[in-house]
Structure formats: C-alpha cells, structure tokens
From TrEMBL:
InterPro entries from the UniProt entry: HTH_LacI (IPR000843), LacI/GalR-like_sensor (IPR046335), Lambda_DNA-bd_dom_sf (IPR010982), Peripla_BP_I (IPR028082)
Keywords for the protein's UniProt record, in alphabetical order: DNA-binding, Transcription, Transcription regulation
Listed Pfam families: LacI, Peripla_BP_3
Taxonomic source organism: Cellulomonas fulva
Protein name per its UniProtKB record: LacI family transcriptional regulator
The HTH lacI-type domain, residue ranges: 19-73
Amino acid sequence: MVVENSSVVIDDDERPLAPTLEQVASRAGVSRSTASRAINGGLRVSPDALAAVEAAVEELGYTPNRAARSLVTKRTDSIALVVPEPDERVLSDPFFAGTLNGLSTSFAESDIQVVLVIARPGESERTVRYLRNGHVDGAIVVSHHRTDDLDRALLSSRVPNVFVGRPLSVDPADVHYVDTDNFAGGELAARHLIERGCRRLATIAGPEDMSAGVDRLAGWRSAVRAAGLAEEAVLHGDFTLASGATTARELVDRFPDVDGVFIASDLMAAGALSVFAEMGIDVPGDVAVVGYDNIGVAASTTPPLTTVVQPVVSMARAAGRRLLAQLHGEPVTREPLIFAPELIVRASA
C-alpha cells in the first residue's frame, strides 16, 4: 500500500516495524510472561532476568503498549488535576498555571501524565463518575467550593486524592490536603496596615464558600479586633480581576474614608488598583492596599503590590508527592501540610 500527499510518498512495506514483546523476550532469553512482568514493575522476576529484559528493551528500542500495560497493571499512568471553576477562570488565573508547574515537577521522574479536568458548575457528579470509572489513577483537587461536593464524593470513593486547600464539607482529618495558613496570612496583612498607621480598615474578602475566603477574613478580623479597631467594611469578591474592580467601586461609594484595605487575592487587588487610579485615589497616600498570593501580577501593578505569599508551586508539588506516595502504597499521614505565610512589602503599603 502507498500513502501519498503533496510532499512525500511512503511505502508501508518499507516502514521499520516496531520491536515486539516477543522479540524482547527472545533477546533476553526469557519467556514472554517474564518479559511482561519485568517491564510492568518487575514483580516475581529474578534480578538477572530483570537486568536481561532491561538490556533487551534498551537495545531494541522497545516501547510498551500502554493499553496492554494498563490491562496488566490496572493503572493508567495518569492523574487528574480537577478544577471546579468555569473555563475562562481556569485559563486566565495564574494560580492554575502555578499549580500545573508544581505538579509537573513532582511527577518529572515518573511516567505519570497530568489530565486537566474542568468541573464546571453543576457538573461535579459527572466529574466524580469520570474519576471513579478508572480513567485516572488519582486526583488533585484545587479551588474547590463548599457546594461542589467533590470532597464528600471522593471521600466515599476509592480514588486516591489530595486537596490543595482545606475542604469545607467534610472533617479535614478525614482527607489528605495541603494549604497555607490563611488565617495567619489575613492577620499578617491587617497587622501591617495597622502598623503603618491605618485606622479605618476594610477588606475585600474571598468567596464565603471557600476555605481560603473564610480563613483570610477570620484572620483579618482577629487582628483588627485585637488592635481595638472597628471593622469599617467587609465586602466579598470571587478572586477574579473583574470582581476586584466591581467591589472596589462599591467600597469607595459606601466607605469613602477607608485608609487601609486588605484584598484577599492579587487578581482582585489588581482590579481594585485600576479603579482607585481611575477615581483619583492615591495608593498608598489615600489608601494603603495589601493583596494575597504574590503571583506575577503583584510586582507589575501600579503601584507594585504589597502582598502575602501563597507558595502555589510548592503546595502543588507537595500535593503531587503525597498522591504519588498513595499510588505506590506507601503509608501517608493524614496530617495536613500547612505552609507559613510571608509578607512581601512593596509600594502599595
């Protein structure tokens, strides 16, 4: 048979044939079943036979058939990064790029591939069905909400999983998760504003159905009350640029005397800073601003943003390693891994 297009003619009879498992077994001097076991984990294979098979694979350039391998190992060599957010949020928020970066480094020395699963609002049942049906070996869940039910569903399943961020709908002691100390981060932001002399404090908090939103607000409130100050204003956004801009307008309209504001994500803070500039409000002269995350945008806003570090890459890397340990059958503590917050001071405060 000849396959032809405008630039090349290829005769199928002249294609080099890919080496087979039988050829590997023959070269190694072992049975086909021994060669298969050696390639798929080395179980019940002697060290000499394993070395011979590995040498034959290298010499012949043999590549295992992944579909056939999955039938033997019951593994897909893939894990799902599950994000219960709208498509446009996933594609535009640097948090998710940092998460992918961290996961990629944690799996760099394995054959595991990361599959992005966007669990759109109202589709959590479909997502859990996909995870349970053997398409992936495990799941990392980020940016989850109280109402998406992924924590409850995964807790009742046999799918190995790790959450980035504390789940709200189940007992945290029952799940594997990594997080930053968002309460301490909120306190850190408020204390910095107070120490620089701000007395009429406001916050644009995150969503009330996410632990990051709840805990950062609680930490901010704790520091404000400890200083004997009143909460001037508490408004809520959804961690997006647009919500930061919209909520900043509401803040200025309703509470024009505010002199210090903690904004619970850098994207929301970037949106707010653009509104403050448009309205002629000087930052930090009229109002000091502290964000949260320390993503790339924080250093490029006008003025550059003082912010609390959330080590997204390190969190994702740690989550990936904990999932790998589960997949390898290693004992994994359910004690959460919590990263300490750090304040990066720039011109906005």
